[in-house]
Amino acid sequence: MWKKQKPKNKGISIFPIKIDTLEKILIDKFEGNPDLKFSRYTVSNRNVVVFFIDYQIDMASIQQSLLQPLVEFDKNGKKLTNETLMNSIPVNSPSTSVDIEEILNGLLIGKVYIYIEDEKTAVDYIFAKKESRSLEKAETESIVLGPQISFTESLSKNMNIVRWLIKSPDLVLEEFKIGKVSPKDVRLVYMKSLANDDDVQTMRQRLKELDVDEVEDAIVLKQYIEDSQNNLFPQFDITERPDRFAYNITKGKLGVLVENSPSGFTAPATLFSFLESTEDLYMRWQAGSFLRILRFVAMFISILLTPTYVAALTYQYAIIPTQILISIGQSRVSVPFPPIFEALLLEFLLELLREAGARLPTKVGQTMGIVGGIVIGQAAVEAGLTSNILIIVVAMSALASFTTPSYLFGTTIRLIRFPLIILAAFFGLIGIVFGITFLIIHTLRLKSLGRPYLVPLYPLQIKDFNKVFFRTPFNHSSKRARSYRPKFIKRFSSKDADQIRDIDE
Amino acid sequence: MNINVSIKPGNRIRAFYLFFIIFDIQMGVGVIGVPRFIYMEAGRDSWIAILIAYLYIALVIYVMFVILKKYENTDLFGIHADIFGTWIGKLISTIFIIHFGTSFLSILLTYTEVVQLFAYHELPNFAIAFLIMLLVLYAVFGGIRVVVGLSLLLFISTFWLYFILYDPIMRMDWHNFLPMFQTSIPELLKGAKETSYTLVGFEILMIIYPFIANKNKAKLPAFLGLTLSIFTVLLVTTISIGYFAAEGLKHIDWALLILFKSASLTFLERLDYIVVMVWLMVILPNLVFLLWAISYGVKRVYKVPEKITIWVLAIFYLTIVNFFHYDYQIGKLTDLIARYSFWLIYVYPFILLIFVLIKKRKRRQGSEEA
Amino acid sequence: MKTMKICLILVSLLLLLSSCMESFQLENLGVILTRGTDITDDGEIEVTLSLLQFVKDSPNVNTTIRGKGKTVKGAVRNANTKTNQEIVVGKQELEIYGRSAAEKGIKPLLDTLRRDANVPNTLFLAISESDASSLFNVQDPGISANLGEFLHGLIRPGEEKRIFPERSLPKVAALINTPGIEPTLPILGMKEGIPSKYGIALFKEDKMVGQLPLKDEVLVQVMEGTLREHYYEMTIPIEMVADYLSDKSHAKKNKNVNMVYIVEKGKGNIKLKNKEKLQFKTTINMLLNLLEISESLKLDNPEAIHGLEKEIENNIKKRFEEILSIIQELNADIFGYGVQYRIHKKGGELTTEEWNRLFPKIDVEIDVNVKIIRHGEVHR
């Protein structure tokens, strides 16, 4: 996959050529494709052919700005050559091509070719027409405050949004083509003056050296170029929110946009960046900090609650206070299964509900959630399949796992639970401690774009804590996070920000 | 063997991690049982004995820094090779490696015993050791950065254990400390010596030193780490003396864990169970550092690749733990380590210092004459 | 693929290893909440267990079973043969010793509690006024349904309120071991078929040697350290406060004044005044809040308050002297005069024998300071 791509040998010119031969070659190459339009004209006594694929082309404008000047070329009495043709057609950025492969690829992306018989090159213009969805509200990462727009499948629209969000000449959108069979336009987005050069170089190299037939989507590309593919943890942060994307870029990270993908990803990411939401910024700093800490707590609850229940009920009954022990015991006694089976059953049920809810249309999905949550849960307790305490435990940990702003990371958390539940069932509390320690070592070993995954916790950057674990008022965050090693740390003068300006003298 | 080592920039660590390294390696299974040993010697004035130990260890660490400063960028093994020549140097280095190895074994066994005592008495030694070894191997294979990071993260994730001590503190009887200053000085010194098994481990400084990026800032974090671990030992011993009466403490093996036994929260009781399990996180940096030091040392001294050492040792330990069944066997091992580590760690650095000073002076004279 | 294989091997090994562990599934357990231990006439140990036991479709989770054996654990095993569930000690909250067992010495019985790491340290100890097993014969359905918790609640009424009867295992074990101070334990007894607090057991080392009535718990508690928020009922002769009565005629009608106070803060303190002559000084300071009084006094007059305070001081002093003479006779130094003696002795060491010899000879000067700082909404 990482093999170096061979440099393309520039094709040998097929021109000059007779129009009939050209048509034959083209039809040969596009076998079974009836959509190649091949129209011949005779202008100033020379045979001219115009060819294109009609549905890739904006027909109205080609009629008006290309065919019409071409047909009316006779009137000014000049001799028809490539140069004079280009002069008389009022469309920008004409180019010429000689290679048949290049022409074929050009046709696919909506170019219109004009070839004047016996000329050495063919002239082409871009009249690409691309169907895409209009901009919509972000669905998977919805927030309450702040911009609601989300990326769409059109790369140009996405780039347009990003450009408008970061109106700076520093913003670089480097172009890459990825995929041998069906190449896709990929853009590496970063701030020239901020992004760490090493990171840019690493990312560039990974993109360049990627040798695959095609990438389906940004998420797929992300998996191809991540540091470790076998890992459960996502190492780049994927988002469908342009504001989140832009926020990361302006903090010195790199972003990647892929053609036809309604999401972009940013790198390097840390474990904690998945728990950040741009909404924290839109809230007052107290609420922002609260929400962020809430999400951390939620992550721990989600990972630990069910395993602790299983461990306590299988081995360490003594850690439960007596009063709760009585109510758990009373509801457990009618359950015929061991706690592990009971917990796995309910977790599985919940995952089924979630998966079914995601597949079904929105309206049906909502009903399903209610039916599943209330009716099945209630019935399970009454049938003696689970204890009612466990329903609360599982519901709470599921709820907690949904608070993660990143859907991808939320899935990771949900998955981690299962090995922990099994460990808890086999070894009790020490199994949980073992599992947690294992996860700590695991995340310590992880890297994202060659950078440590747990920064700013390790390597310790206490000054960055206010950007990651909580939020301080803006006049206290005058610096960018050191963790991502941007070229410039300072955002604005903190002295100036602290000044109070509106007291009357 | 090269006396000085060059470390890749990616493997260097900042000096302030020494705080966590020194603290983590000193805190382990020793602190669970140490109050009894100190109290047996120094009685009510145990706290003075601990402070004496503090001053002495601070001096030892200072001496270590003096020795290390004499070289450009080296570790204990390099110094040995330089001072004593290849063969004797190798021999002394090997003694240190064996010391790390036995410490590793005793920690593994003691923790196994504690787990069996408190929670799973039917779980065989092998099973517990196997679980622990999995974590240790996974961490050590991550390299020095993971090893150091683990000590930092586990420090953070176990720091809350201090807060549970509020409960025994409220139940202390301060009369147990009165009258003060009654213990004779030899007894105090003996008490200070009893800390050797617990507080030993800071010799890792001489192994990890070449990995430190900003060496001029290394002293303060090392001393602060020592201070925190001394504070912990002091706290634990003081609470134990106040909480268990004199006669009681003499018969209590795992004082610290019993202190945690009386604490409970409204939503969680029997915190001692949780503490015993979480103690895995406290001993893990110990084991990881020791295994790392062994593998690094073997590579330095005998040029055996780290991977081989680690695998061989893992199998060795997993085999040997099955032969320890009695409490007293583990106790004997601990005693043995306490006894020789006093000479090896508390006394030897001074001898080494003298040799290093003589050697350097000779060398300087030699270079001046030339 | 290699990692997958290793993972598979590891997981299967883990499963194998864990199979040798005995699990404690809650519904298979009989959780001891309270245990009564008696020594029968033939020297066997008899335990009475109040268990938390979960039975399907039964709201009652409490059962009581008995067992006999040579050791405490053996007796519990014996009891275990009568139930289909595994009896475990991890949540035991109270251990009650029968009076005769306590008089023989509780040290051998304490051993199992100290040795077994599964026994919690929050376990309280108490003495039964007669046999421990009698406390478990409760007919009242409301109480017997939740007997274990009820008994524990007697000892520890409120969460985190460290008031007298609470005697936790490590504390008692420590007191038994310390020369110069002896433990006290609460006594439970049956009153009208319901278990209730009864008195204070006095110990000489690990043997119960005598008892004090329950009303002395205030003084015992004050001498232990600081006492807060505790009711204190007392009776004084009316002629002592006759001057301050709102209606002087009452002085002839009634003999006594009955009062209840809340001890807002009480503190006791022992000082060694003279080591050779064994002279001690005991100071008791109390801040009181008057809750109820049977006679109307002119409490708006500061002198009335001072007079009342003085009378209370005398009352307390008298009672304290009585208690002292009892414990000196029993040679059970429950207040810890010996600890003060040890602290001021050279070398700081004191043996039990030495203090046994000295304690009956000590001379105590008592100084009581009482302040009535509040007297409620009215001052008459």
From TrEMBL, chain A:
Signal sequence extent: none
Top-rank taxon: Bacteria
Membrane topology: Multi-pass membrane protein
Entry annotated with the keyword Membrane: yes
Keyword annotations of the record: Membrane, Transmembrane, Transmembrane helix
Family of the protein in this entry: Belongs to the GerABKA family.
Gene that encodes the chain: gerIA
Cellular component GO terms held in the UniProt record: plasma membrane
Localization terms from the record: Cell membrane; Membrane
Protein name: Spore germination protein
Keyword Transmembrane: yes
InterPro entries recorded: Spore_Ger (IPR004995), UPF0353/GerABKA_families (IPR050768)
GO BP term, example: spore germination
Lineage: Bacteria, Bacillati, Bacillota, Bacilli, Bacillales
Membrane spanning stretches: 293-315, 374-400, 420-441
From TrEMBL, chain B:
Entries under PANTHER family matching the protein: SPORE GERMINATION PROTEIN A2
Cellular compartments per GO CC: membrane
Recorded superkingdom: Bacteria
Membership in a protein family: Belongs to the amino acid-polyamine-organocation (APC) superfamily. Spore germination protein (SGP) (TC 2.A.3.9) family.
Descriptive protein name: Germination protein GerHB
Annotated GO biological process: spore germination
Subcellular location: Membrane
Parts of the chain that traverse the membrane: 15-34, 46-67, 87-111, 123-141, 147-165, 224-245, 274-296, 308-328, 340-358
Keyword list, A-Z: Germination, Membrane, Transmembrane, Transmembrane helix, Transport
Recorded topology in the membrane: Multi-pass membrane protein
UniProtKB/TrEMBL annotation, chain C:
Top-level taxon of origin: Bacteria
Pfam families in the cross-refs: Spore_GerAC, Spore_GerAC_N
InterPro entries, per database record: GerAC_N, Spore_GerAC-like, Spore_GerAC-like_C, Spore_GerAC_C_sf
GO biological process: spore germination
Secretion signal, residue range per the UniProt entry: 1-23
Membrane topology qualifier: Lipid-anchor
Family: Belongs to the GerABKC lipoprotein family.
Protein name stated in the entry: Germination protein
Organism: Ornithinibacillus bavariensis
Taxonomic lineage from the root: Bacteria, Bacillati, Bacillota, Bacilli, Bacillales
